[in-house]
Amino acid sequence: MRTMTQLMGRPILGLPSDLDSRSTLTDLLTGVRTALLTLSVVAAPVFGLWVLAPYGDDTAQDAARAVFGLWLLGHGAPLARGPQDAPVTVAPLLLTAVTAVLLSRAGHRQARRARGRGWVRWRSPLTVYAGYLLVAALAVAQCTDPRALLHSRAVADLVAVALLAAAGLGHGLWSGLGRPWALPRLPLPSAYWPDGAGAAVGRALAGWLLALTAGGGAVFAVAVLLGSAGQDAQRLGGGAADWLGLLLACLLLVPNGLLWAASYALGVGFAVGTGGHAGPLGTRLGPVPDFPLLTLLPADRGPDWHLLACAAPLAAATATALLLGRAATRWTPTQTAAVAAATALAATGPGLLAGYAAGGALGPGRMSELGPVPWQFALAQSAWLLAVALPGALLHRWWLGRRGDGAGPVVRARVGAYRLVCRLAA
């Protein structure tokens, strides 16, 4: 009976694994479907606003062009606005994050079809990638119309979509295949680079980035509570469609605001137009567009209680020091310092990427510079880690070794023997 149940549970027409592959057309349609899925994230609210809007001169085709423009902008594609072709390069990072997650999931599903050899190994993922770019080409073609709200720059936009799609699908493939192609171990002497140092750097860097983002979120939340974003939205919004449109725009730019707040807390601040700057050491602002999130900027004033924002990176660096100190209980002080310095150096890459992604332009002239300066944002992170995390890791390592907690069997045995001898002597 058990054998019969197993046979009935199997497919009637079972094919060998080498033949269990879909056609090229099916893979191409899978890429198209993935692009349409990410496109629907923009299309649903935009068409909903178009239905609620009382303006009669906007057609469904105009709404569709706006959807394609926002979709391209979410991929980091540079666009232009109006008859003067004013640059618009600030990417709504919430839309970018959702797109990256959907692409990664699609790549993960394709991982089981990438286990062959040679061209067969990559035929299915590359075909899915081509299908995604096919929809991107259609979006670019729609936005090249001069009547479009956001004008496309064909080559630059296709390159931006291709890079994000390759990164998302590639990450999904990499994770679905069991994370192969790991970075080789650095050929450093063991006196400076102990065993397990690479994993410790990865954990410490992840802890730093998460803690810094949480600190930026706290600074951003305080700015929302003390600012006048709600009053400004009430002044600008004249109906249900206007309110919902402002809410949608603000939600899409919340991750940008978190990174701006993190840059503010790090001390380097961020640019608010050409010649304008916002930072805890002082703020100078010029005229800015009427937008609720821009009302959260601090007023022109010198350093005062705004310096309290620097507690966010201080807490994040302290958390990183605790992670490194816990991992360094079996290391020497030299090895601990080397790993902490490597963590500070590794933070420059994500800092450059985040600073570049969070900023951009919203128009010509003054509004051509918005957001943190990437190299300043990256160097500030490394400076905080070197100034706080490195000595903090050494101090925490010394404290754990002194207490004998988490210091490995050798140190614990020595501390235990010492305590036993003291008790017998007493």
Automatic annotation (TrEMBL):
InterPro entries: DUF6350 (IPR045931). It holds the Pfam family DUF6350. Keywords: Membrane, Transmembrane, Transmembrane helix. The chain crosses the membrane at residues 31-51, 87-106, 126-143, 155-174, 205-228, 240-262, 305-325, 337-357, 377-395. This is Integral membrane protein. It comes from Kitasatospora cineracea.
